[in-house]
Please model this.
Amino acid sequence: MLTAEQKEQALRLGKLVVEQEERALHTLCESLGKDFCDALEMIFHCRGRLVITGMGKSGHIGKKISASMSSTGTPSFFLHPAEASHGDLGALTKQDVLLAISNSGESQELVDVLEYAGRHAIKIIAVTKNRNSFLGQQADICLQLPNEQEACPIGCAPTSSTTMTLALGDALAMALLDLRGFSAEDFHDFHPGGKLGSKLKRVRDLMHTGDELPLIGENAKMHEAIVEMTRKGLGCIAVAENAPDGRHILRGIISDGDLRRHMSPDLLEKSVRDVMTRNPATIDELSLASKAVGLMNAKSITGLVVLDGQGFVAGFIHMHDCLRAGIE
Model:
C-alpha cells in the first residue's frame, strides 16, 4: 500500500508532467508558420500516399498519425524503418511523400529509408528537434519541434516531445481534412463499425424497403390494413397512392394509436382514409439516423415514413432499428 506521503508526491508529479506538456504544446502552437504551410501543401498535392516512418516511441506516434490521416481523407500507411531495410522499401514509390519522425534526427534505423528516398527523388518532410541533424539536412521541409524539456523527472523518457509530435500530426490531419472539404458522411464511409459508425449511419442504411414496407391504399378497408400491419410487424402502415411510374405518394399513416382512437364495432369495415393520420412525420433517407431518433423522441412515436429526394415513399424506419444499430 502506498503511504499518504507517497500518494501526495505521485499526485504532485502527475500534475507537473501535465503542466510541462501543456507548456510544450503552447510553445509548439506559437512556432507553427511557413514550414507547416509548406508541409501541408506538399501533402495536399501528393499524388500517392503519405508514408510515415519512425523508430521506437516516434514510430508509435507515427502509426497514430498515419491512422488519423487515412481516416480523414489523406491515404497513408506506416513504414517500419527496420522492416524497410529488409525489403519493405518497395512499398515507397516516387508518387509518395515521406514523413520521417526522429526527436534527435540521428536515428540510425532511418538512414536506409532516407537514402532510398533521396535516390528516387521522393519528397521528405522531417519532424525533429534538430534542424541540423542528418534527418533535418536530408528533408525538403523540416518541421522543427521546440526544444522543450521532457516531462520526466530524470529527463530521459520521451514525454513532451512525443506529445508535441502527436499534436503536430493532428494539426496537419485536421488542416488537410478542412482543405479537402471532408464531411461527416465521408467520415462514416471510413468508419462503418463501432460507436463512431453508428452515430454517422444514415436513415437509408437502416430503413425497411421492398416487401418489408407496410403499404396500403386509402380506399382499402381497415380489415385489410390490420392484416398488413400484423404481417409486417412494424406497428404502423403507410397509406399511399401509386404514381404512374410505380412509385408511392404518401397520403397518411395508421399506427397502433390510431387503431385505439378509432376503436368501434364497425372499425374493420371503415375505409383506411377515415382512420389514417394525414400529414404524418417523415424523414429524408439521407438524414443521419440519429436525427430520426431525435424526431421520434420529440413526437413520442416509434416509427417514421422515409421519403426520397423527390418526396416519394422510400421506406420506413422504426426506433428498434436505431437501437439495434447502437443509436440512442
Residues 101 and 127 are 5 Å apart (CA to CA). The chain has a mean pLDDT of 92. The two ends are 42 Å apart (CA to CA).
